[in-house]
Amino acid sequence: MDSYGREEVSRGAVFLVGVLTAHIVGQPGGPEEDCLDPLSDLIPAVIRKLPDFESADPAQVPMVTGVLMAAAMGMDTVAWRDQFGTIPPKEALVHNFVLWLLADLFDSLVEQPGATDQLMRETFNSMAADDAG
């Protein structure tokens, strides 16, 4: 947080929501039985779990739902969210809860604890390689 600032860390959480959502709903061309339908399965399940976090502000649910929808539609989640301005702290907190829920779901779906950590490391290594090349 000290190195990049609250806003960039918040945008990073939005980016990671996009990465995880893409992996959870499946890649284009993948077998249909392995994919979750984002509208009937994924997004409602995540939104229903948010009240479990006492500090999750219900007023932030429309924006985090929008980020999930953008991710499910294959859009750049950061670009989509950026069009609405700076991410306030209460919203950033809810994006982190969404990220936590998605990580737990991803690990469960692939039946491998730590799968999200591995996926994130691969994502960041790929980004670093793109920047170096």
Concise structural overview:
With 133 residues, the protein is mainly alpha-helical. It has six helices and no strands. Helix 1 runs parallel beside helix 5 and helix 2 (38-49) packs antiparallel against helix 3 (61-72).
Describe this structure in words.
Helix content is 67%, strand content 0%. About 5% of the residues have low confidence. The chain starts with 5 loop residues before the first helix and ends with a helix. It is globular, with a radius of gyration of 15 Å. α1 packs across α3 and α1 packs parallel to α5. The chain is built from six helices and no strands. It is an all-alpha fold.
Share of residues in helices: 55-70%
Helix-strand topology string: HHHHHH
Radius of gyration, Cα only, in angstroms?
15 Å
- Our count of helices gives 6
Mean pLDDT: 86
Low-confidence segments, ≥5 residues, pLDDT <50? Answer: 27-32
Give the distance, in angstroms, between the N- and C-terminal Cα atoms. Answer: 27 Å
The total count of strands amounts to: 0
Describe the largest sheet: none
